[in-house]
Amino acid sequence: KELSASAAAQTKAAKDVADDDLILDFGPDSVRALTAILNSAGTVVWNGPIGVFEHPQFAAGTEAVARA
User: Fold this and answer.
1) For the segment 8-59, what is each residue's pLDDT rounded down to a tens digit?
2) Using CA of residue 21, residue 24, residue 26, residue 27, what is the dihedral sign?
3) N or C: which end of the chain has fewer CB within 10 A?
4) Which H helix or E strand runs over 61?
5) Beta-carbon contacts of residue 21 (< 8 Å; ≥ 6 apart)
6) CA-to-CA distance for 62 and 35, rounded, in angstroms?
7) Is the dihedral of CA 48, 6, 31, 15 positive or negative?
């Protein structure tokens, strides 16, 4: 499997990720959990994007963290 601009995003539970799957963004459950932590933090140091944000289908995690 490889990343391409036309790749479709899929959401899977961690236990369902295959050895050859590419994890390119957070799923909605992870986004909710991380944004809850960030919203209660006094200071956040961010060292880069969550997903492959250059591709819109994999940008939701990065966008949610940026807004948190």
Assistant:
1) 999 999 999 999 999 999 999 999 999 999 999 999 999 999 889 999 999 9
2) negative
3) N
4) helix 60-67
5) 1, 12
6) 11
7) negative
Q: Give domain status of residue 49, yes or no.
A: yes
Q: Note down the domain range covering 46.
A: 20-67
Residue 11 included in any domain: no
pTM (2 d.p.):
0.78
What's the confidence (pLDDT) of residue 20?
A: 94
Query: Which parts of 11-65 are beta strand (E)?
Result: none
Residue whose C-alpha is closest to residue 48's, from 68, 31, 28, 65:
65
Specify if 36 maps to a domain: yes
Q: How many domains does the chain have?
A: 1
Looking at residue 1, what is its pLDDT?
82
